[in-house]
Design goal:
The complex is a heterodimer of chains A (262) and B (382). Chain A is α/β, with parallel strands linked by helices. Chain A has six helices and 13 strands. In chain A, helix 3 (97-111) packs across helix 4 (130-138). Chain B has three domains: 7-120, Orthogonal Bundle (Butyryl-Coa Dehydrogenase, subunit A, domain 1), CATH 1.10.540; 121-232, Butyryl-CoA Dehydrogenase, subunit A, domain 2; 236-379, Up-down Bundle (Butyryl-CoA Dehydrogenase, subunit A, domain 3), CATH 1.20.140. The chains are: A alpha/beta (262), B alpha+beta (382).
Chain lengths: 262, 382
């Protein structure tokens, strides 16, 4: 089974983020680039699936981004992915969700897959729309929030997590899945993995390789970011003053009860 | 000149940091208090490849370089010195003698399980009456009918008595050289050797979760073939092992200083006095600046020694300079870091008190600071 996992190269989630007011884009300079944490969970799910299915199963990671960030993909290879493909073209800069999914779908068609795993959300943009848009552009079924994947012949039996429990879903291959965070913590890249990663291939594709000239980047986008604002500062909390612990606890209890929290 | 780490070195540093901060650091306090050897962390380090980091893949290692090794030791020591010395002593004292001096058969038999981290191994040089004066070895081995009969005692031997220790390589006097001086050879002594016993773990002030024991040899019977390298080369072999070991202790010292600095910086930002964080007072801010300055200096010296070793150059002097300086930096940084904590630093529940105890051995192990100065003075032709 050929499994492809999309990964996004995002600014370190632990770093302080700034938005450039002129470009309205996240400032990447001086901030380390890492694999989008949700995608690491998807990759973990893919690697577990590969280990279970065995045979000639492979895991390929696919990303769209500036070629300068190519080496960040080595981490995915060190964790155990077999190959990486990067779609990189200056014309893709400023792509919105539609243009991103349009270009990625063309790249993914070229790479080919039986199963496409996508992290549910990116840490920087956080639109959560790309998985659906990808499935739409690819003309494939999308199953979101998969928490358990069983492989049948030509199809998958999937448990998908919901607010109240889970649903049992069967889907034919090829298909697009987003993964829940239930496959366990993403594995560490071992020393052997790190040393072996440098020998694994990272293929770089440009738009011309996909026959996509038009409808790329800002020009091919259907939405425009008009303005942005930082989240409102958190208001001052309510301070409870009490003579002793017992009356303090009582005051807090009353506060919670008024809000119907207890 | 280029100070950039390679992508691979960065990746190994990142792995070591993630592992140390996520898996090791949260355990350090309890391990220290209970003197609990971290078998599960050793198993995880083995799985990730740290226990055989610098050895070639054909011998079960990860095939990384000395710079990566030093970076990994620093990151683990930053989280917990006991875990770091367990890993560092295993690699540089336990396994590396087999890699450097072993026959092909000895490498396959002993080095492979060590590099895979399935076994630990000790290196027995120090004796109760021969520390800095290591040439004054009192342990004797006499060859009789194809068996070395070993008698003597070794002191302070790391990794020698855990449940997964496979044995210890020891120095022993095996005869007299033509010039009348004792002939010293290295012998491989597996754990099950008749006449070889280990004491209980020492009660230590620091590195309390690491395994350190006294070894006794009473007519211990070691097969003749367990000679490591050639007979009579034990002295030059252990000097070479100690040269590499100095990079280890330098890295342990830098890592501990980094950890102490982390604690002091975080504390100085959150502790308020006179209406502001104490980091806003120059008395504290300047301490932190000086600490960072010294840490960076010691780190550069250590990585340079590692880089010289990787380049196949002479690195003995740089390694010795790095070990001496880094050990003294760890002393000053840990001391100031505790001072920044004030009275809380004196309390066991703050990690800095453990680091303060863990620090002292950096100035003693792998050649005391005094011996380091002696060695350096000789290298400088004084």
């Amino acid at each position: 089974m050929k499994i492809v996992v999309t990964v996004k190269l995002v600014p370190d989630p632990n770093a302080e983020k700034k938005i450039d007011p002129t470009t309205k884009r996240l400032v990447r300079a001086g901030v380390e680039t890492v694999l989008n944490p949700y995608d690491e969970y998807a990759l973990e799910a893919a690697l577990q699936l590969k280990e279970r299915v065995g045979g000639d199963s492979t895991v390929t990671v696919f990303t769209m981004g500036p070629e300068a960030l190519k080496e960040t993909l080595r981490k995915a290879l060190a964790m155990g992915a077999d190959a990486a493909v990067m779609l990189s073209d200056a014309a893709l800069e400023g792509s919105d969700v539609w243009a991103t999914a349009h270009a990625m779908a063309a790249g993914l068609k070229k790479v080919g897959f039986d199963l496409l795993l996508v992290g549910g959300l990116t840490d920087d943009g956080s639109t959560g729309v790309v998985p659906g848009a990808l499935a739409e552009h690819l003309g494939l079924a999308l199953v979101t929030n998969a928490r358990k994947i069983e492989v049948g012949s030509g199809s998958l039996a999937i448990e998908r997590e919901t607010d109240t429990g889970y649903q049992q879903v069967n889907v034919g291959l090829p298909a697009v899945l987003t993964t829940a965070l239930t496959f366990g913590e993403p594995r560490y890249a071992s020393l052997k993995g790190i040393m072996g990663a440098k020998k694994k291939p990272i293929e770089v594709l440009a738009l011309a390789d996909l026959g996509l000239g038009e409808a790329a980047g800002g020009a091919g986008s259907k939405t425009e970011l008009l303005s942005f604002a930082p989240p409102p500062a958190r208001g001052k909390g309510q301070v409870v003053e009490a003579a002793d612990g017992a009356s303090g606890a009582h005051a807090i209890f009353e506060f919670l009860r008024a809000k119907k929290l207890v | 000149m280029n100070f950039d780490l390679t992508d691979e070195q960065k990746a190994i540093q990142g792995l070591a940091r993630d592992f140390a901060q996520n898996e090791v650091k949260p355990r350090a306090e309890v391990m220290d208090r209970e003197e609990a050897f971290p078998y599960d962390l050793v198993a995880k380090m083995a799985e990730l490849g740290f226990m055989g980091l610098p050895f070639p893949e054909e011998f079960g290692g990860a095939g990384a370089d000395t710079v990566s090794y030093a970076l990994a030791v620093m990151e683990i020591a930053r989280a917990d010195a006991s875990t770091a010395i367990t890993m560092a002593a295993h690699v540089s004292l336990g396994a590396s003698p087999f890699y450097r001096f072993g026959t092909q058969e000895q490498k396959e038999r002993y080095l492979v399980p060590l590099a895979q981290g399935k076994q630990l191994w000790g290196f027995g040089l120090t004796e109760p009456n021969a520390g800095s004066d290591a040439g004054n070895c009192q342990t004797k081995a006499v060859l009789r009918d194809g068996t070395w009969i070993v008698n003597g005692t070794k002191a302070f031997i790391t990794n020698s008595g855990t449940d997964i220790s496979g044995g210890t390589t020891i120095t022993a006097v095996t005869g007299t050289r033509p010039d009348g001086k004792p002939e010293i050879s290295n012998l491989i002594v597996p754990q099950a050797t008749p006449g070889f016993t280990r004491s209980k773990k020492y009660k230590k002030m620091g590195w309390r979760a690491s395994d350190t024991r006294e070894l006794a040899f009473v007519d211990a019977r070691v097969p003749e073939a367990n000679l490591l390298g050639k007979r009579g080369e034990g002295y030059s072999q252990f000097l070479q092992i100690l040269d590499g070991g100095r990079i280890s202790v330098a890295a342990l010292s830098v890592g501990l200083a980094m950890g102490a600095y982390d604690e002091a910086l975080a504390y100085a930002k959150e502790r308020h006095a006179f209406g502001r964080p104490i980091s806003k007072f120059q008395a504290i801010a300047f301490k932190l600046v000086d600490m960072l300055c010294e840490i960076e200096h010691a780190k550069l010296m250590t990585l340079r020694a590692a880089w010289e070793k990787d380049a196949g150059r002479e690195f003995e002097q740089t390694a010795s300079l790095a070990k001496l300086y880094a050990a003294e930096v760890s002393h000053r940084v840990v001391n100031e870091a505790l001072q920044i904590h004030g009275g809380y630093g004196f309390m066991d529940e703050y990690p800095i008190s453990r680091m303060y105890r863990d620090q002292k051995i950096n100035e003693i192990g792998e050649g005391t600071n005094e011996v380091q100065r002696l060695v350096l003075a000789r290298m400088m032709g004084l």
